[in-house]
Amino acid sequence: MERHITCHVNFFIASSTHKGFLLTGESHFTSRSTLASMARPKPDQFLLVLFCVTSSSLCFYHGMSWQVAQEEDGMSWRLDEEDSEVDIVQTRHDPSRSCNFESGKWVYDQSYPLYDSNCPYLSTAVTCQKNGRPDSDYEKWRWQPHGCSIPRFDALKFLGKMRRKRIMLVGDSIMRNQWESLVCLVQGVIPTGHKKVNYNGPSMAFHALDFETSIEFTWAPLLVELKKGAGNKRILHLDLIEENARYWRNVDVLVFDSAHWWTHSDQWSSWDYYMEKQTVFQSMNRMVAYQKGLTTWARWIDLNLDPRKTRVIFRSMSPRHNRENGWKCYNQRQPLAFSSHQHVPESLVVLKEVLRKMSFPVYLQDITAMSALRRDGHPSVYRRAISQQARQQASGFSSDCSHWCLPGVPDIWNEMLSELL
C-alpha cells in the first residue's frame, strides 16, 4: 500500500535562455512522476524542487532537481545529482545513506583480518608479516562509524554485484595497494583454475571467470599525460589526458585517486616542466597545477561517460606518516585515538571544488581523516625481508610510511567501496 505524504512545494524552472519563474503549491503524491507532472518545463530547462515534507510531527526541507531532455517518445526525466549538497536532509528510512563513513573510530576486532599474507596476489613490499614484522595487531582494526556500521566484506555478494562487469582502480602505487587488497578479499571464494591475472602495458586485471567479472588496476598517478620532450626533459601536459583515458572506456565502475605525485617535493618531482596548450612553464604552484590537471580529468569524464552506464568514485588522498615529532611510522603498534590536528589537506580542498563543478555525478570517498589515525599500518622497514640487525639500523628515514601493510587499512577502504556499490 502506498503511503501518501503532504508536501509544500516550491518549483523553480529555468533555462539558459529564459528567466526563471517560481510556482508554489501543496500536493499529495506518492511518486516522482506525480510530482513531476505538477510542473513540466520545456526541454533544455531544469526543474528544481524544494519541498517541505510533513511526516508525523517532522517537517524538513528536501531538494531535488530533474534535467529534462526531448526524446523520440516524449520527454525523459532524470534525477540530477551533480551537486551532493542539493540533498539537504536524508530520511530515517534509508540507513545506508544516513551513515557518515568519514566520522568514527578504530575498533579492535579479533575476527579480522579477512585473509592472510599468503594471498598470492600481494607484492613483496606490502607483505609485512612475511618480511619479519613482529606484531600483527595492525591487521585487526576495523573502522566503526558513529551511529552505524560498515558491513563486513562479503566476497560472494561483491562478485554478485559485479557479475559481467568491469571495475577499474586508476591511480598511483597506493591505488595498486588497494587493488591488491580487493583482489585478495575476493579470490579466496574462487576455485583454482577459475581465476587468472593478466597484464597489458600499464594495466593489470584479475578475472573471476565464473562471474565474468574483472577487477583491474591502471597506472595513471597524475591522470594527465607525462611525456619526454626535447633534451629528454619530462613535461607534464596539464591539458592532455586521452593517452591514459583510453583505458577507462567501457568500464562499469571507475575508482580514481591522484594526489601524492602532485605533492612531492622538488627533489622528488616527476617532471621538469609544465605545459598547457603551447605554453611551457618552468614553475607553477603545485595546487594550481593540480587544479588544472583535475579539471582536465573532470572535463573528460563529463564529455565521455554516461552516468546510466558507469559509476565513478574518487578516493581522497591516503595520508603519510613520515613527519617529525613522533609521527614516523616505525615501531608504531596502535592507531591514534584521535587526531591532534584537524587539518584538511589542501589537495582535498582542491578536489572537492573540482568535483562540485562537474555535471557527472562523482562520489567522493573520503578516507583521509580515518586513515590519518593509522600510523601503525605502514610497512616502515618491513617493505622487504631483512635481518633484525638491519631493521634496527634502518629505523630512520628509510621507512615506508606511505604505503600500507596488507592485510590492513586498504581492506577497510574496500569494505566501504563495496557498500557504496
From TrEMBL:
Residues 98-149 form the Trichome birefringence-like N-terminal domain. InterPro entries: TBL (IPR029962), TBL_C (IPR026057), TBL_N (IPR025846). The chain crosses the membrane at residues 46-64. Belongs to the PC-esterase family. TBL subfamily. Keywords: Membrane, Signal-anchor, Transmembrane, Transmembrane helix. It is a single-pass membrane protein. GO terms for cellular component: Golgi apparatus; membrane. GO terms for molecular function: O-acetyltransferase activity. This is Trichome birefringence-like N-terminal domain-containing protein. It is found in: Membrane. Residues 150-419 form the Trichome birefringence-like C-terminal domain.
